[in-house]
Write a structure and sequence with these properties.
alpha/beta; homodimer; 3 domains; Nucleotidyltransferase, domain 5; Ubiquitin-like (UB roll); Raco-like_middle (chains A, B); 6-stranded mixed sheet
């Protein structure tokens, strides 16, 4: 059983049947009985029946003999009675959705028990209209473009719904509610709202916090009265996916300052606790997400995610995701590799392949000879047949790691907090799942803290949407987070640029910040 | 200017334009600015923007330079922002509707000033499917019947809307809100709800108090976000038209007990004041509304509405509505005639044509000889060429007048109030407009009170709907009236039957109740 009150609930009630002495109308009888039977947390809230439901609800109530289960949406400030069931429902499915620009990830959850009935990912069909956000914003400005992009998102979601329904043996009309989190552009496109001003100074969204609306209003195939709850955005560059993440890890309720890092196309970082929240976003992501490195790829099957170099035997070992034949390298693999290359002194503190090799043993010499090859003008490290990493790739990674550390430093400096004061650093997404914090510290990407501080938290955008399904009070909490959070603009931040320059070394210009990392001069 | 806050308002606001330092989303900016600019009566209410309006409202706000007039519905417990205007509106039209079973009567009202822009009546096209309520209830049970009846009502209303728009030079989309009052069956048919149980014991409506809904949901041609506010019913036999009437005359706020009488197919009577209300309905109407008398007709042009007999010259004079050639007699005409016949001793205290004439003068004898003719088996009084009143007609009228007086007596007796304690008796509708209370007292239909007590109030169903348009607080007041009112069932009331028998004489079995009326034994 779910201890909190979900967004949609089935409430049992037994009404006094009508008689000559009590001739209240069916629907008024139902509403009055329900109002008296509400759990204390919902008591006293205005209760309405949407026009489209009057006939079906009243007929079902009468057919059931004036007792049964009322299905109710817990909307902000009011309750909406949308269905009446003669028997206790066995399931009350709701859908939680992370609306990523490349992939959607969703779960079907039973609101009665909190149990996950199905979970899966799907391609966002919007990629047909452009891989990146900016292309899609431009596409939306064309005739029909916005409608097509909306339809692509809706089709993608409907595809997942159909899949889930088959998997969990439920009908689409049994799904009563949907929570969704996505970045600000994704939210606009899903709602069919023009994202035109999102990428134009002063970067103003059309809406940050839309009110809940009917899923059918955008063409989703769910119960006709299913509500869509879209997690609010803070602004153009800080979307509902992050707000959802803050909810998921409970950052807004933390007693001690903590941090949430989410690396996607951008690195988005939130610092704070129950009293304040500060956030920023910066372009630290591409190299880590597989967008820049020549051989880079998303953390998905066939991506090399882990690399180690034994510095005695000079053997290189690697592991690919799902142990599939390697086709490229993902962010965590690249970090692993770079840290190992640094410790093996194959790259220097600037992240450059050593011009002159400083190793001593024959095994080491042979290792380098075999692996370091010239490809055109550049030096390239051959990781495995068909997968190599060039100096250009390493340079991109160095910029990303420098940006990441500079973001974390700038954010903490802004509020006068030392890294050592952080109780937890939640690391979200595939990045958090696959990264080895020890290696990230070696590179000077993450601060030199005990490894227990780093907490991989998976897809927090989806997790927050799931939690919202099961606790309607999180809706107001999400709006509060939006109001409470301070957004720090890095583009115009001089401090950030200085810190960024200082971070473009391994581990840092000031190695005393990383006592655990060996320094080779 | 309207002093109260109408159901829909246009509120001026000036927002701070967006900038890099203030990058709130357009719609959130609009909502926040509006929330801060609300009149104190509306302050603090949750404010939502319906999904369908997001794009148009945000675009209009931006195009207007972030200042202008927000068009807002004052819904129960929340506000809904549905439009944004760059300039102060010159008109904000709303529609008030009395949905009668035979005729609709409506007014187009400017919510800014309270001015009536147009007012008219139209036939309820449902009459094609049956003249009376019961036929329509049966028709609604047939396949497609309910849909056809709903469509007929909607078509009738759309016809009036088109007419008003032409007359007042407004577009249907400029009409933002609609209030409607009708009896319980009419309300069900307009909403497309089955009236099946309305006429079957224990006479349970499907709904008494529907929440406001979009006018477009039933196919009305108004602004796409125009709301329909249907005045609540108390039960199967006490509809929103009466609740509207109570609002209109302010019966629920009266310091001293007062009464509202509305005669349609039934006579519906409400007694009470600010602390309590009691109501009942009975079949006192048909003879008075023109439904029973052979020559009877509705109070409309060509109906004889007034009759007098000069008892010196023995001249009969009459007046028809609109001075049109007489085609029949309406309720007030019949009452006038019966009272005059009684005073002329042409009918006796049982309402029967005198078997043996008791008059004395030659003129009187001649008058009777010319006017009283045998038609088949019955004595008939010739009023004017082509219009006569038979004993059967008089009998029906006598039953109606007896029922009316018995209803009034029973109601007062129920709460222990004497007629003399009533401050006012509001008489609604055509009946109130045309009736001569002096003559009704002579017949013993209305209590023998000073004539100033009787107050003709016109179409109170329409008047209440008009008042609701201009004062959104009346919605809650109407719901309160429904909760507060006690309905007295007459069908099973033994007292009523006794009183009815006592009232079947002119003026009454107990003439001491009517000191102003001469008694001829």
């Amino acid at each position: 059983m779910v201890a909190t009150i979900p967004l949609t609930v089935a409430l049992p009630l037994v009404a006094v049947p009508p008689s000559l002495a009590d001739n209240t109308a069916d629907l008024d009888r139902l509403k009055a009985t329900l109002a008296a039977a509400l759990p204390s947390e919902l008591a006293g809230r205005p209760l309405r029946v949407p026009f489209a439901c009057i006939t079906t609800v009243a007929a079902a109530f009468r057919a059931a003999g004036f007792h049964g289960w009322a299905v109710v949406h817990c909307l902000p400030g009011q309750l909406e009675l949308i269905d009446f069931l003669p028997e206790e429902p066995k399931l009350l499915p709701g859908l939680a959705l992370d609306l990523g620009s490349t992939h959607l990830e969703a779960s079907l959850i039973d609101l009665l028990t909190g149990k996950v009935l199905a979970r899966n990912t799907a391609l966002n069909q919007q990629v047909e209209y452009g891989a990146d956000i900016l292309t899609r914003i431009h596409c939306a400005a064309k005739e029909e473009g916005l409608r097509q992009l909306q339809q692509a998102a809706v089709d993608s979601i409907n595809g997942l719904i159909a899949q889930f329904c088959q998997e969990a043996a439920v009908l689409p009309e049994e799904i009563r509610t949907l929570t969704a989190a996505g970045n600000t552009t994704m939210a606009h496109l899903l709602l069919g709202l023009s994202p035109y001003y999102l990428c134009r100074e002063p970067y103003i969204p059309l809406v940050n916090a839309p009110d809940p609306f009917l899923a059918t209003e955008i063409g989703l195939r769910l119960h006709p009265q299913a509500m869509t709850w879209l997690l609010p955005s803070r602004g153009s560059y800080f979307g509902g996916d992050l707000i959802s993440g803050i909810l998921a890890v409970g950052l807004d309720q933390a007693e001690q300052p903590a941090m949430l890092i989410d690396v996607g196309t951008n690195a988005e970082v939130v610092l704070g606790g129950k009293d304040w929240l500060i956030a920023c976003a910066g372009a630290a992501g591409p190299a880590l997400e597989g967008g820049v490195a020549r051989m880079g790829m998303r953390a998905a099957p066939s991506a090399i995610e882990q690399v180690s170099i034994d510095r005695v035997s000079w053997r290189l070992t690697w592991r690919s995701i799902a142990d599939a034949p390697p086709l490229g390298i993902c962010g965590s693999g690249l970090i692993d590799l770079a840290a190992e290359l640094y410790l093996a002194r194959i790259i220097d503190l600037r992240g450059k392949f050593q011009a002159e090799f400083v190793g001593q043993s024959e095994a080491q010499r042979q290792f380098v000879q075999e692996r370091l090859v010239q490809c055109g003008n550049e030096t390239t490290f051959l990781l495995v047949e068909g997968v190599s990493v060039s100096q250009t790739d390493l340079d991109a990674m160095m910029r990303s790691k420098a940006a990441m550390y500079a973001i974390l430093e700038t954010l903490c400096a802004q509020v006068g907090i030392a890294f050592s004061e952080l109780e937890q650093i939640h690391v979200a997404g595939a990045f958090g799942e696959h990264i080895n914090p020890r290696q990230a510290i070696t590179l000077g990407m993450l601060p030199d803290l005990p490894l227990t501080v780093f907490n991989p938290v998976g897809n927090t955008s989806l997790a927050g949407a799931e939690q919202l399904l099961l606790d309607h009070t999180l809706w107001e909490r999400a709006q509060d987070i939006c109001r409470k959070i301070t957004y720090l603009e890095l583009n115009v931040n001089q401090e950030f640029m200085i810190r960024f320059s200082g971070s473009r070394f391994i581990p840092h210009t000031d190695p005393s910040l990383f006592p655990s990392v060996p320094v080779f001069r």
